[in-house]
Amino acid sequence: MLRYAGRRLLSAAVVVLAVTVATFLILHVEPGDPARAVLGEHATAREVQTLRHEWGLDASLGSQFTRYLDDIARGNLGRSFLEQTSTTSLIRSRISVTAALVGMATLFSIVITVPLAALAAARKERLADHLVRGLSVTGLGLPAFWFGIVLIELFALHVRLFPVGGWGTSFWSHLEGLILPGLTASFAIAPILVRSLRVGMIEVLDADFVATLRAKGLGELRVLAHVARNAVLPALNLLGINIAFLIGSTVVIERVFALPGLGSLLLSSISERDFPVVQALTLVMAVAVVLINLLTDLLAARLDPRIRLG
Amino acid sequence: MSDADLVLNRQQLIRYGAAGAVAIAAGTLPGRSLAARPRMLAAAPKPGGTLRFARSIAPTTLDPANTIIAGDIYTLDKIFEPLFITSPAGKLTPWLATGYTVSKDKKTYTFHLRPGVKWSNGQPLTSADVVFSLDRSRKNPKGPLSFLDSAITSISSAGNSKVVVRLSAPWAPFISDISAFSNAIIPANYGGASETAFFKNPIGTGPFTVSGFTPDAPSLTLKKNPNYWQSGKPYLDAVTFTFVDDDNQRLLQLRGGQVDVIDLVPPSQVGALRSASNIHTLLSPSWQVDLLVLNEKDPHFADRNVRRAVMQAIDTKALAHAATFGTAKPGGSFFPPSLQYYSKSTKVLPHSLAAAKADLAKSKYPKGFATELLIDGGVQKWRTFAQIIQSQLKPLGINVKLRPLDHAAFESAFQKFDYKMFIDYAINDISDPDEMASFELDYKEGGSSSYWSSFNNPSVTKLVRQAQREFNPAKRAKLYAQIQDAVAQNAPFVPLDYPPYINAYSTKVNGFAVNPGGAYRLETVWLA
Fold first, then answer.
1. How many angstroms away from the CA of B307 is the closest CA of chain A?
2. Alpha carbon of B29 to those of A124, A305, B3, B143, B516: distances in Å?
3. Rounded to a whole number, what is the distance in angstroms from the first to the last CA of chain A?
4. Taking a C-beta distance cutoff of 8 angstroms, is the pair B133, B66 a contact?
């Protein structure tokens, strides 16, 4: 187990490093000057040059990059060009929004997926199964932002159950404000999970060992425990991948629902060429995605000895 | 501008008020006219309540001298005020100053500070505060608008309530420059605090106050300034700005009753909003004009006949109708109609394909050519503009390839002259048209090589510089009329349309008005 974990950790570190390098290069090779954005159209070339110098943007790409890596190594993610504050404090003020959104979406995904998949598996090839499968195909075809707007129209404008968007100021308003975005995000991944879990359950229910267990006279509850442990593996892997995907899709969902999370910060920082913020955000997001994948892998290995030994 | 002009402006404003226009309804006029207000309004303003306002851009700083970003400007102008402001009708209005006297040589201005103005901490406003603020603004090497103060050579106090400003030469736009938000007044030496600490917990003379400002927070609450110099105002107890960058989300929040006012309504939504009974849509004229700029470093556009052909081939009426859903006025003069000294009778070349073909026939490229149009691809309106222009130039044999880039890349491309044609908006930040005229036409001194077109016409430049030193309004109007004619005839850029600021608000909001600079003063707003 330890050797396996070490191997996975190493490859995770390589991925994070690759993302860091790629973000840095893309940002600095793309045209667009943050100094010009801050100083306005009336600024002279000299004024722009002075500010670029102050920000270290006039140094060579190589030396900017080594300085950037050096800063990261010392835990310094830099200062925002535009906000006059450290990127760490910007991210700290927003990370809880994105984490809450991802958490809510994951919760919704599980709540939607498990009963639907169980129902479809139990009623294999019957009406309920066909309905669930049809629904999940339709769900797959709908873009998340469109679904979000429909939810807003229905449950925030027509029936005023939830706010249209925004984060609010109290715990309850945060929670209220997360329902529709959480649903929207979960609808983007629930269809895949339902289909995968359904197949998993059907396969396991048909497996020889289930017949054996029953023949050995095991109680139905103990049989179910064995079935669940075997059926959940593929779905767990998929859930891990999809939480990673969710972190990416928060960019769109946070915008549609006006949530002040990391995704919306990333969008505005890219358009303003606020290099330090974009670099720090992609780093944080990459680490989050890699960590979640790592956790999923380790959990899977814990559940299935074939993975850690193979 | 002289004292006589100010009196005239004041009378004009009162006249507008009697006619029921926004200027008075919005109550932007302090002093004598206030007495006349209650009679003008249908209902007496009701004090109290919190205005919930969803805006597109969050503020990153409250420092007036260090920003040019809309999110910052329209927040800090509720906290800090300049000596003069621009009313919703576009007129200069005495604010923290009651007026000024000017020396015979037009080089020394003495401002009279308004008596009884207090800072939000209760301390009185003094001339030392004004001297400190204006010096700070004009000497700031990073100030995006410090160029507006370049005529100033010295600023000094003359007693507690007078400030003397000396200029290097007579400068007609001076009072307008002083009215810029960047010249807003802050307490001398930040009231004893450090600069950073001050702008976190600022002290201002404005109708609202902020404590514990955090850049880029999802919302910001402004509280009523109890020491505000206009007694009885602001009517509101507080204003809560929330920052929502998605256009659609802002609209939905207004429709859902979650907020009371929104900014930057997309033109495509204005029709639908007008049918909503509890929402009012306000289109306010702006000092903005959208331009198609032609690069004279490109041999095609160096040819005046080609530029004229392009101008005449573009049907600005159709363009404004299709791309702005009729919310913008079609372009003509390069000055927007809301700007001082706009000339209605500018000799604009009318849209005519035949005339366009005739001019192109006279050029070095009678059969047309292939070219490129650079746009900020993130903006739907520019994409529509570009497609219409592409199809309208086709009959001339001018084949246009579109080059959409993201905003930052787009800006850096045209500022390096890496373009053939590009579309952008030009904004005058203050009420005086010199900013736009010199920035767009004074090739050497203007700072942008004539809005990156490289148009360099010495006789036009001479007129622009003459207008800067002309104090007689009639003579100045004549100079600007000549300048507008010259631009229309030489076509360094094609004015496409004049877009308004579009706000929408719940019908329970009263007294909301926007000036041509896009600024709204909230001390006049009340909730029914």
1. 24
2. 76, 80, 16, 29, 16
3. 11
4. no
E-assigned strand segments in B268-376: 279-284, 288-294, 329-330, 369-376
Using an 8 Å Cβ cutoff, are B443 and B461 in contact? yes
Annotated domain spans of chain B: 6-244+501-527, 288-498
B377 touches A at CB < 8 Å: no
Burial B31-65 (b: 16+ CB within 10 A, else e): eebeeebeebeeeebeeebbbbbbbebbbbbbbbb
> Residue B516: which residues within 8 A CB-CB, separation 6 or more?
B86, B90, B284, B285, B286, B287, B336, B338, B339, B431
Q: What is the ipTM of this complex?
A: 0.78
Q: Does A48 touch chain B (CB under 8 A)?
A: no
Q: Do residue B249 and residue A37 have CB atoms under 8 angstroms apart?
A: no
Q: Is residue B197 within 8 angstroms of chain A, CB to CB?
A: no
Question: What gap in Å lies between CA B307 and CA B295, rounded to an integer?
Answer: 10
Write out the two tokens for B517: 């600079």
Query: Does residue B234 have a cis peptide bond before it, meaning omega lies within 30 degrees of 0?
Result: yes
Mention every residue, 6+ apart, whose C-beta is less than 8 A from residue B510. Answer: B43, B45, B525, B526, B527, B528
Closest partner residue to A30 among B141, B409, B447, by Cβ? B409
State both tokens at A130. Answer: 């066909």
Run of H or E including B502: strand B501-506
3-state helix, strand, coil in chain B (%, to 5): 35, 20, 45
Q: Strand, helix or coil at B196? A: helix
Say if B236 is an interface residue toward chain A (CB within 8 Å): no
**DSSP state, residue A1:** -
Can B6-244+501-527 and B288-498 be said to share one CATH topology?
no
Residue B476's alpha-carbon distances to B179, B308, B434, B479, B487, in angstroms, are 20, 27, 11, 5, 17
How far is the C-alpha of B98 from the C-alpha of A216, rounded, in Å? 99
Give A-chain residues touching B248 at CB under 8 angstroms: 149, 256
Q: Which CATH class is domain B288-498?
A: alpha beta
Q: Which residue has the tokens 């959940």?
A: A232
Residue type, A217: G
Give me B367's structure tokens.
Answer: 């059969």
A152 contacts B218? CB cut-off 8 A = no
- Judge contact between B425 and B291, C-beta under 8 A: yes
Beta bridge partners of B370: B399
C-alpha span between A71 and A280 (Å, rounded): 11
Task: Tell me how close the Cα of A175 comes to any Cα of chain B, in angstroms.
Answer: 16
From the candidates B142, B147, B278, which should be mutated to test the interface with A, based on the most A CB atoms within 10 A?
A: B142
Q: Which residues of B touch A271 (CB under 8 A)?
A: 378, 406-408
Per-residue pLDDT tens listing for chain A (310 residues): 788 888 888 888 898 888 888 888 888 887 888 887 778 777 888 888 888 888 888 888 888 888 888 888 888 888 888 777 889 988 998 999 999 999 999 999 989 988 898 888 878 889 999 999 998 888 888 887 788 889 999 999 999 899 999 988 889 999 999 999 999 999 888 888 888 888 888 888 888 888 888 888 888 778 777 877 777 777 778 888 888 888 888 888 998 899 999 998 998 888 888 889 999 999 998 888 888 888 888 888 887 777 776 6
Fill in the DSSP letter of residue B62: -
Angle between helices B473-490 and B304-313 (to 10 degrees): 90
Q: Which CATH superfamily is domain B6-244+501-527 in?
A: Periplasmic binding protein-like II (3.40.190.10)
